[in-house]
Amino acid sequence: MSTATSEVSTSRRPITVVVVALVLLALTLWSTYSVIANAASEFLITTLAALVLPSILLATILAGGAAGILAVGLLPWRPLLAGPAGGLVVGLLAMAGTLVAYHHGPAVPYVAAVVAVTGALGGAAAAFRPLAAVTAGIAGGVAATGLGLVAAYFQNDLVDLFGNQETVGTMAEAASRLQLTTSVVSGVLAGAVAFAYLRRTGLALPWPVYPAAGAAAGALTLVSTLLGWLGRLPLTEIVEDYSEFDAQIIYSRLPEQINHGMIVLFAGAFVAMILVGRTIRRP
Fold first, then answer.
1. Of 130, 8, 136, which Cα lies nearest the Cα of 69?
2. Looking at per-residue confidence, does 224 or 47 come out higher?
3. Distance, CA of 268 to CA of 264 (rounded, Å)
4. Cα 211–Cα 193–Cα 265 angle in degrees, nearest 5
5. Cα-based distances in Å from 153 to 157, 159, 212
6. Residue 20 in contact with residue 67, Cβ under 8 Å?
7. 283 burial via Cβ count (<10 Å: 0-12, 13-18, 19+)
8. How many CB atoms lie within 10 A of CB 27?
9. Can you say whether the dihedral through the CA atoms of 99, 102, 106, 110 is positive or negative?
10. Could you report the per-residue pLDDT of 179-213, keeping only the tens digit for each?
11. Is the pLDDT of residue 265 over 90?
């Protein structure tokens, strides 16, 4: 049995990660459709599409990575082809879902191509070794992204919980606290899930693999953020023709998303490192 096949078989069969990642992608696409379908003008459609594209790409890169791992397990002798191919299948599914939500907006071919490529890039992550660590990292990313969806769904209640007093100042401060808390908790969750996944495989892995797996969720978040920035460039230019103020709001999201990815990366790596350190037997 090849190394890739062995790792997949001892990783509690990553089909579970694939299914959960696909469910997360479906929920993200449905949420996108619900938001864009109610838009009344091309300007609003384009603005909303530019704002939600990074979320679609993050869910796509995670699901693509999970599918790539499964494909490598099925075709272990061709990991450099099987991984991206498995991710591309997910990318095409995500592209179809994106087209359903955004078919009547501008720059559709460009946006669709970025979504498909993102899935393939996610699948390419399966070329890294050990494969179990990649699977653990994606599992942590799925958990962290799921937490982000929950936080977004209850955002109004959470903002009030963090000190919103219905004024512009308190609302901004509460939103900032909520964002920071969500990023930190997402990183902690990603690191804990990655550690737990690796421990349950029963594989004898060197300790640096654990913080690397814990950091994977943040790394994938940063990659999807970069792809999201590239993917929404034509959309933002169109928005700018209508309103420079709205375009600046879209541009301002990039630093926030980078900060979120960095926090998730370092928090995930730190938590996984601490957890594995507690299991190391001292002489």
1. 8
2. 224
3. 6
4. 45
5. 9, 11, 30
6. no
7. exposed
8. 15
9. negative
10. 889 999 999 999 999 999 988 877 778 888 999 99
11. yes
Instruction: Please answer whether residues 239 and 46 qualify as being in contact, where contact means their C-beta atoms are separated by less than 8 angstroms.
Output: yes
Residue 14 · residue 73 · CB < 8 Å: yes
Contact between residue 62 and residue 220 where contact means Cβ atoms under 8 Å apart: yes
Q: Is the peptide bond before 130 cis (omega within 30 degrees of 0)?
A: yes
User: Residue with structure tokens 């061709």?
Assistant: 78
Q: Which of 7-11, 148-152, 202-206, 226-230 has the lowest mean pLDDT?
A: 7-11
Distant-in-sequence contacts of 103-111, Cβ < 8 A, 24+ apart: 104/45, 105/36, 105/42, 105/45, 105/46, 105/49, 105/235, 106/42, 106/46, 106/234, 106/235, 106/238, 107/234, 107/235, 107/238, 110/231, 110/234, 111/49, 111/53, 111/231, 111/232, 111/234, 111/235
* Residue 12 confidence (pLDDT) above 70: no
Q: Which of 274, 281, 184, 233 is nearest to 49 (CA)?
A: 233
Contact status, residue 210 vs residue 194, Cβ threshold 8 Å: yes
Residue 59 and residue 28 in contact, taking contact as beta carbons nearer than 8 Å: yes
Token duo for residue 102: 């955004």
Tokens standing for residue 213: 């797996």
| Spatial separation of the C-alpha atoms in residues 194 and 110, rounded to whole Å | 34
Residue 17: is its pLDDT beyond 70? Answer: yes
Q: Which of 264, 239, 242, 266 is CA-nearest to residue 251? A: 239
pTM: 0.86
Residues 107-147: tens digit of each pLDDT = 778 888 899 999 999 998 888 888 888 999 999 999 999 99
- For residues 209-233, give the mean pLDDT: 90
Number of H helices, E strands in the chain: 11, 0
